[in-house]
Amino acid sequence: MQSRIRKRVALAGALAGLLATFVGTAGSAQAEDPAAEEGTTVGKVTGFEAKGSVYQLSAGAAKARVSFVDKETFRIELAPDGTFTDPTGKDIVQPQGKPPATRWKEKGDRYELSTGAVTLRAYKSPLRFALHRADGSKVWEETKGLTWTEDSTTQTLDRGAREQFYGAGMQNGRGNTSHRGQRVEVGVDYNWDDGGHPNSVPFYLSSAGYGVFRNTYAPNTYTFDEPVTAAAKEKRFDAYYFAGDTAKDVIGDYTQLTGKPFLPPIYGLEIGDSDCYLHNANRGERHTLDSLKVADKYLENDLPLGWMLVNDGYGCGYENLAETGAGMKERKAELGMWTEDGLDKLADQVKAGQRVAKLDVAWVGDGYKFALDGCKDAYKGIEDNSDARGFTWAPEAWAGAQRCGVQWSGDQSGSWENIRFQIPTYAGATMSGLAYTTGDVDGIFGGSPKTYVRDLQWKSLLPMTMTMDGWAPSDKQPYVHGEPYTAINRKYQKLHEALLPYLYSYAHEATETGVGAVRPLALEYPEDPKAATDAAKYEFLTGEDLLVAPVYEDTDVRDGIYLPKGTWTDYWTGRTYQGPTTLNGYNAPLDTLPMFVKAGATVPMWPGIRSYRDRGPEDQVAWDVYPQGRSSFTLYEDDGVTREHRDGKSSTQRVQVRAPRQGGGDIRLDVGAAEGSFDGKAEQRPYSFSLHTSDAPSAVRIGGHRLRDLGSAAAYEKAEEGWYYDRDDRAGVIRVKTAPRSTGRPFTLYAEDTSAVGGKVPGAGAGVSAPSGQEIPVGTASTVRFGVTAGTRDATGVRLALDLPEGWRAEPLKDLRRIPAGTTATVDVKVTPPADAESGERTLKVRARYTAAGQDRAVSGAFGVAAVPKPPKGDTWAGDLEWLTDTNGYGPAERDQSNGESAAGDGRTLSLAGKSYEKGIGTHANSDIEVHLGGRCSRFTADVGIDDEIKDYGEVAFSVEADGKVLWTSPKLTGTSDTVPVDLDVTGARHVRLKVTDTDKKKTGDHGDWAAAKFHCA
């Protein structure tokens, strides 16, 4: 036990040393705001020179220089001592083309420096800059001249009445909504929790139509008050400015300067797995080849796996690397390596099969330049020693890292809070040109089966993500927690695989525009006043078409889902909503991620695959179409692995849709030829189309050829070509498939006499809903309630069916004769889980067939109910009850023992202040244990404190919650504190949670005991 404590203290010291090293070389990002310090402001202009597109202004000893890069991009430098310097050199800014033609003129109080698009005004007394467009409209203006101190320079700008600000790289807990009114730090701080800023970028953009990149390695502080101040911790000023009509234009200009995002290999878009396999202190004796056994588990559980990092741990080495790499390829995965041992070994590792490089401790030493060089060198090392594309991961990067790597948000703990603050983080990072940002699924510490599922759900809609094993009580693979969790994780990872052509097309788009696939609503809906606010903070867009609103609390409903302007379709049920609107009470059982599709979406998919390698070049491409008005999507394809696409070896295929803006009419899909060529390009392939319409067509044809109506799902599956209308699928879908067709020839598909998404009578469809928090004791018949709500037309002849988990029973449902328009019919049904059912949330699904607006229709809906243990009888030890949740900081929480190592049952006798206890619970903060009392108990008693085996380590607080209400919280306790007795009234409580919280954030020796913990029940 004590040896483990010493190891943790040593690790904490090592991390502190690394932090001191990094901050010492790069400068502290947490220093006081330089703008608040007294400083010197640049004086009046005393000299002016023009040389081509470069202009120099003198103000006494200080000199300023303006250099135009293109017609919308320019650079302002200020040297207080008159000597210009450039510490970043060629590290960040990439070679640009020929400077634009410029002109200048003197106008009384100012000089005007112009291109065909913008004019920079340089006021003379004192020197002060303002940017205007060619039409004279102001973009930004300094309220005072550039200011400097001995270690900082600050620009001060006027703030518009409705001006919003974004950027600054990865800002944990924010970024996808406006920074207006906030102070934002740019610089490493190794705070990977809410409020930290890993992977900072000294760039911000404004809704006024401009962006600013500070060309420096120094930490920055942006304060978006009135006025705006932008400061860097160095006595020089060097910034590039971008003027664009939209935020996308500005991001594009910034990444034109600092480098477009790289195009990852397609296996990089698949989930990765990371762990140490050689002499793992946390998992016992293992060897590198044991990683193949884990890869086999992915295969056995039919789970995707793109790559595996096999030495991911402090000081973890490797052996049998070539054999391991070959074994990975046999399992349809690639080999990855952590660069802890330095980059000098990378060439040999790549030749042995390495295709992924993760950067971490090895490059901490010389600050941001070292980090950026590490990213570039690892990327180049893969490419120099193979025909593969460079592919790296880094947790503390800088401007320019989008060229070579994925940025992830650091070592975090699996929790609801972790899910919550990560949601705005990655979409916000897109606003700084970071196209690939993510976090470890369920963190690397802590976690639980439910937080794992909820975290993986929404991260499956990011372009890429990974799991990190070896630090939590159990590993983090998606199969570890068993059913029903494995099945849910499979569902979302398979969805991610199906979306690979959509995601890969957006990845290619990022190489041209700088804009990643994961986007804040404010990027796509800049005119929507709510998009910049907290109303849209906990949701994002994947591409333009998929809106994702993750569940970040322990609940089966989601409130506050904001849908912007347009028609939005629930991905799971087909129910449509007209935005702008906010949805509350959305039923989101554990297997349901709230996800909506924008009308007009045309989404290419690869259905049914576990790996991209499961596809042949001439396999089907499936298009999921939500027809409304005119829309299109361009599918991008190349070989997915090599670098030949850089020589133009790729192809694109565009699908254009013409449909009614609303209501009934014909749908036309123009499928273009696949233009371009690459090795492995399909010469012919079959197509399938899912047209979400809610109305069966009278006919479907390709050109003049009328396709056969196959009439059923079974006949459709057997046929090579044809169509049928599936009214039971998501409120009605026309399914069409074709025989193999030449990819070199376009064709046109027609669906006649059908409708736009939402049906011929918009809003006529019904919906299913249910109250949250429904519970059923196992082995007991209990009432479950749901409702069916008619749309804008009466629903008649309503026939209901209820899908239950295996082994569950329900009484027969009665049909409903009529549900008047706009009203809800409430249905109560007795449901019985089996007596041996495991506790936990289960999903019940309702299917209803009915007639509305003259059409036979169907609707489905899912909602959660919780199977719970039968309430305790009589006095019951807390350690003898079934625990609904048992989150623990290290290893499992122990029954009647102190917290042990990583295995169950390896603790010691509970001991507080010299007193031993036979009964109780031993935990390690942060810990959360939930029990079900069903309102049958009146009191809870216990003795609490830090176990004697810890001596003077640790600092924790205990608390007891009943049905979400905090009943009691202890003072902060250490290993030398007296035992605290607990005697609480819990009368009527259905659920009680026993929590132990780490109060000094050190997570060292926080062993909290609930000794003699007992519930006194009827």
TrEMBL record:
Keywords: Glycosidase, Hydrolase, Signal. InterPro entries: A-galactase_NEW3, DUF5110, Gal_mutarotase_sf_dom, Galactose-bd-like_sf, GH, Glyco_hyd_98_carb-bd, Glyco_hydro_31_C, Glyco_hydro_31_N_dom. It comes from the Bacteria. Residues 639-670, 888-908 are annotated as: Disordered. The keyword Signal applies. SUPFAM superfamilies: (Trans)glycosidases, Galactose mutarotase-like, Galactose-binding domain-like, Glycosyl hydrolase domain. Residues 872-1017 form the Glycosyl hydrolase family 98 putative carbohydrate-binding module domain. SMART domains: NPCBM. CDD domains: GH31_N. Pfam families: DUF5110, Gal_mutarotas_2, Glyco_hydro_31_2nd, Glyco_hydro_31_3rd, NPCBM, NPCBM_assoc. Residues 1-31 form the signal peptide. Residues 640-649 have a biased composition (Basic and acidic residues). Belongs to the glycosyl hydrolase 31 family. This is DUF5110 domain-containing protein.
